[in-house]
Design a protein that fits this description.
two-stranded antiparallel ribbon, 2 helices, about 100 residues, about 45% helix, 4 strands, single chain, alpha+beta, rod-shaped
Length: about 100
């Protein structure tokens, strides 16, 4: 069963996925569960660790024997809300997987 349409001069064709055998269904089922578990673990880690920083070295002066460099810290931070969203998304994916 396919639906065809034309949106903004671009032809669209949406087809219902037909599983030819049970292996494809099980593979898709396990893949969704695995992605859900990874999202949940990533969400928990993002709630616990709200960021990290890395250090780069930049040359300031390079004049003959005189060489000076500066270490610069670059923080990378995110809100714990992002971790909560990942956690909820992972739990939803695992729960949807169990309903099927």
């Amino acid at each position: 069963m396919c639906i065809t349409g034309n949106a903004m001069q671009t032809p669209i064709k949406i087809c219902k996925l037909h599983m030819t055998n049970k292996k494809q269904y099980i593979y898709l089922h396990m893949k969704t569960k695995t992605i859900g578990i990874v999202f949940a673990i990533l969400g928990i880690l993002m709630i616990i660790y709200t960021g990290f920083s890395y250090v780069t070295t930049e040359k300031v002066v390079d004049f003959g024997p005189l060489k000076m460099s500066v270490e610069k810290s670059h923080p990378v931070q995110w809100s714990p809300i992002v971790g909560v969203i990942f956690l909820i998304g992972g739990v939803v994916l695992v729960a949807m997987n169990r309903k099927k």
